[in-house]
Each structure stands twice: as C-alpha cells, then as structure tokens.
Amino acid sequence: MRLMIDFGSLAPIRLEAMGRSLAEITHVAVSHIHADHIGGLEELAFLSHFVHNRKVVLLTPPGLRHLLWEHSLRGGLEMVADENGEPVHCELETYFHVHEMEHGWQQVGTLSVLPFRTDHVPGKDSWGFVVRDEESGGQMIFGCDTRVCHPELMEDPISEDFERGPIFHDCRLSGGGASTIHVPLSEIRYPAQVQERIVLVHYGDNLRLHQDAIREAGLRVAHPDEIIKLPEWRARLRG
Ligand SMILES: [Zn+2]
Fold it and tell me: Which pLDDT score, from 0 to 100, does residue 205 have?
C-alpha cells in the first residue's frame, strides 16, 4: 500500500525524480481542491484507466467528493472516446475506487486515518490528516494548507502506543501581513513539545534566505526529495 496525501500538478514529476512510478500509488487522500494539491489527478486517472488498467483508491473527506468532481476534475475526465471514436460518458468512479471518508478514525488499507478540518481559505472546504501505521507504531500529522493546526489535535493525548510523530506544517516565508491562507513563519509558535515535532512544508522557493529564522524558531523543513522514515524520524531529518 502506498498512500499519497494530495496529488498536485508536480506530483508526477517529483515521483519520477525520486525514481518512483505512478503505478506504485494505491491510495490518494485529497485535502482540498487547489491545483497544487489535486492538479496531477487527471494524469493519474487517465494513466490508471487507459495504461495500467487499474483503479487507485481516492479518499475524499466528508463532503469533498462532490466539490472535487463538479468543480474540478469533471472538465477533463467526463468525456472520452471508445475504440470506434464514439463518445463515452465517465464518472469519478470510472477512474477511481472512491472512498468517501467519515468523521473520526477509519481504517484505510493497513493504515488508520483521521481527517480533520483546517482553516485555509474562508468558505473553502479544507482538510488535514493524522495517519497511523499500527504495525510500526509510526504516526504523523499532515496539516496540508492551513493557518494553524487544529488546537485540540495539537494537544491531544495521543495513545502511548504511538510515538508522537512529526507534524508537517504549512508555512509562508515571504510577505508580511495577516495569517491568512498560509501561516507566516513568525506565527508558528506552539508549546515546546509541539514545536519540536513541526516540520515545515509548502514554504516556497526562497528557503535559503530564511534558514536562520527557521533555526531560531526551533523548526526544521522537509526537503522535496527527503525520505522521513517513521517512527525513528528525528534522527533522519536533514534539518
Ligand atoms: Zn490551498
């Protein structure tokens, strides 16, 4: 089982750069319908359907399936042609095994997954995920695009069976102003036991200019091709 959280426009390119194949992906969980999170799904759908003859499991948080199809993917995926050139009408289920998630913890293949709402663009449905691997005891929180991680989640009494794993946290390095859409580095301040678990993602292309500030905040970043192995993740981070 290989779960991707989101599948943005650059996902096929990044996977190839890491020597991985689209055919390895078995599950994709979708956080929200911005192109940098779902822009690669059309390619994944067509390749899976027409080349690999298989379906990836598409995990949609409560209510997001409708938005994903009607407001985004339908435009590219609805119509195809059969071998005679005749039009064929398709649905999201033509390409994917759609798993509409419920609220709360649920089993997804060999993993346990908890979707949680995030505070991203006002009025826009956005989600993050907590993922546990029962076998290894590894756990991570992936906040996707969010101003702040869910306060209750950040303080939750996570089972002692699981190491308190990394929290992959959205971060905006450039520009001032309020904490809207993406959270500025200056506002990523949590209690020490939470702060030390945070790994910054979505930070833009000017990382070099902000490395001192990141270090001073007690934070670290995830690099685009970095492999962070759970549960022994701290020792393996590049910093
Ligand atoms: Zn977004």
Answer: 74
Q: What is the pTM of this model?
A: 0.90
For the stretch 66-82, pLDDT in tens is 999 999 999 999 999 99
Q: How far is the CA of 159 from the centre of ligand 1 (A)?
A: 30
From 3.10.180.10, 3.40.50.300, 3.40.50.970, 3.60.15.10, which CATH number describes the 1-101 domain? 3.60.15.10
Q: How many angstroms is it from 122 CA to the middle of ligand 1? A: 11
Cα–ligand 1 centroid distance for 186 (angstroms): 20
What tens digit of pLDDT does each residue of 135-193 get? 888 889 898 887 655 555 555 544 455 557 888 998 988 776 556 678 888 888 887 87
Sign, Cα dihedral of 164, 165, 171, 173: positive
Phi and psi, residue 37, nearest 5°:
-120, -20
- How far apart, in whole angstroms, are the C-alpha atoms of residue 144 and residue 36? 11
Ligand 1 centroid, distance to 34 Cα (angstroms): 5
222 C-alpha to ligand 1 centroid (Å): 18
Return the CATH fold of 103-239: Metallo-beta-lactamase; Chain A (3.60.15)
Q: Which residues of 88-104 are buried (b: 16+ CB within 10 A; e: fewer)?
A: eeeebeebbebbebeee
The domain spans of the chain are: 1-101, 103-239
Ligand 1 is a single-atom ion; what residues have CB below 5 A from it? 34, 145
Distance, CA 85 to ligand 1 centroid (Å)?
37
